[in-house]
Specification:
Layout (H helix, E strand, L loop, with lengths): L5 H14 L2 H17 L1 H5 L2 E3 L11 H9 L3 E8 L4 E6 L8 E2 L5 E2 L6 E2 L7 E5 L3 E3 L4 E2 L5 H9 L4 E6 L4 E2 L14 E4 L1
Parallel strand pairs: 1-2, 1-7, 7-10, 8-11, 10-12
Antiparallel strand pairs: 2-3, 3-6, 4-5, 8-9
């Protein structure tokens, strides 16, 4: 099925994500997590900027807890609506203590966290998306927050998308110059 309109694709994939059985979501998320833990980039990373999963996305909360147990410093994005950007924040508390922030997504509170320095050699960024292709392009929810972040850090930082099998496409035909390409995408 060829879809050449971003919003149509977003709507179709969101419907698939939301209609997925919970047991299937958990099973697929567990498989994706196991593949993440095996990746050399993840293993050597001293810090990981995760996203806080919501609305049926690949579940990052067990991954965050595992990375903490492995001794990695954990970050989560905080949306700065004034400047229309994401601020990577080091998690200064438990992920369970984060509060609902912009767009209904859990964020660390500013007073419990510090801004995270993105180090090319020591950081991995786990990136959400609605659709991905074989060239590691991604389609997000439409705000451009991750594209701006990824375009600001350069190509040396390892960026990893997490996707269910039905979020993968041969080619996203409507990729634009500002759309950031990822290092890799992990799927179940």
């Amino acid at each position: 099925m060829e879809i050449n309109n971003k919003q149509t694709l977003r709507n179709r994939v969101l419907t698939l994500i939301r209609n997925q059985e919970e047991s299937e979501r958990i099973s697929k998320s567990t498989n994706i997590a196991a593949k993440l833990y095996e990746m050399p980039a993840f293993q050597k990373a001293r810090q990981v900027l995760f996203y806080a999963s919501f609305d049926g996305e690949v579940d990052t909360f067990p991954m965050i807890k595992e990375a903490e147990m492995l001794g990695k410093k954990i970050g989560l994005p905080k949306v700065d609506k004034t400047n229309n950007c994401i601020i990577p924040m080091r998690l200064g508390c438990s992920i369970d203590d984060c509060q609902e922030g912009s767009f209904g997504i859990k964020e660390p509170s500013t007073d419990q966290s510090l801004e995270m320095e993105i180090d090319n050699n020591e950081t991995v960024i786990i990136v959400p998306g609605l659709a991905f292709d074989k060239q590691n392009n991604r389609l997000g929810r439409g705000g451009g927050f991750y594209d701006r972040l990824l375009n600001s850090i350069g190509d040396e930082v390892s960026t990893i998308g997490l996707a269910y099998d039905f979020q993968m496409f041969d080619e996203l035909t409507f990729i634009e110059p500002h759309d950031a390409r990822l290092s890799t995408v992990i799927t179940n």
